[in-house]
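ok posting inputs for the uracil job
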Amino acid sequence: MRIYDIIEKKRDGYKLTKEEIDFFVQEYTKENVEDYQASALLMAIFINGMDEEETVNLTESMAKSGDMLDLSAIDGITADKHSTGGVGDKTSLVVAPICASLGIKMAKMSGRGLGHTGGTIDKLESIEGFNVTLDTDDFFKQVNEIGISIIGQTGNLAPADKKIYALRDVTATVGNISLIASSIMSKKIAAGAQNIVLDVKCGSGAFMKDEQSATELAEMMVKIGKKCGRNIAAVITNMDIPLGSNVGNALEIKEVIDILNNKGDKQLRELCLVLSATILSISYDWTYEEAYKKAEQTISDGSAYKKFIEFVNAQGGNSDFTTLPVAKKSLEIKAVKDGYIQSIDSRIVGESAVLLGAGREKKTDTIDYSTGIVLYKKTCDRVSVGDTIAILYAETDERLKNGEKLFNTSYVIGEEMPEILPLIYKTIR
Ligand code: URA
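and the output
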């Protein structure tokens, strides 16, 4: 078999066989296929597409390119939750303790921030002492003992995806449904959980800008999950507006603590409950309504917060959250006219948070965990001149100034009350 023939076949619009896909994935991982050949094939896939069978084959091949976690060492029902990436999305840190406090085993590998979107691992690292690199035995032991562990992805989980994703990122081949679906699902399949819930983001801050493309991506990932023998559901949710009030690592941990203490942003709380209820209802023999009520109960009776504290302590973190880092500098953004907030572009808010120090522009950049944005007004809110729209936090005046300049382009104030967009579009099971 030759990579040249595989590129030519896909260039001409033909379907690739399982053997051809395996050949590409294996040989590219072993560095026997050059980057320029892999780029050509990815562009041919991007333009001519892949059908469901090819997408499933690509997913399985990438999943098998490294370690396949065997979660049979964990007693009980395992579940995983994945978000396609958003701004202010801290739901995993609420959903995992809710589900773990109801007996689900949440063995979760998470990522770091990517571009304008934040990452769960960076957020956890803003807690003093928190260790995100447990070895597999300690990871399983902790999940067996307390029902929850969240660590960074091991180097050898779907290494083919890691290489292919890095290439897609620089060859304008990210935004293809088969490539996104196989990339996400290869890691979920390799991570081993039996029950998987996907939060597919839709809107200005997401890969998928509209409901139709988000639905296509969600349907493809659900089909892949089922073909690979998993229980799976996907919830399509709004990412036109940042999720919750806080964007930035330690600021988001504070918001997680608020939600788990029955306070905080109502939309964030609702999404956390919907995702938790979806996990619980596909994992147990519970109706969605029953699962939702039980999830709510774990917040009101404090059991989810208790689980969160147990989890932070188990991974070496300081659960005296008064030690969370606080930024040296802050700046209030005030409304300059009366009206309604027409929109807040979550992508620009995410990019502003990166400029403030909360994310990385290059892989090697360090993060200032204290920095970010607290939003006091969001889309549809009424504002009068002088009202605080947001407070920006940074470690230096220069960063504050850069963040302010960009943040000021993220929102529009107008006279009419805008249309209220739904938080949840639909669930695909
Ligand atoms: N997240 C991934 O892991 N892969 C993609 O292709 C897009 C988002």
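notes: Residues 84-85, 165, 174, 179-180, 183-184, 207 surround uracil (CB under 6 Å). The longest strand covers residues 195-202.
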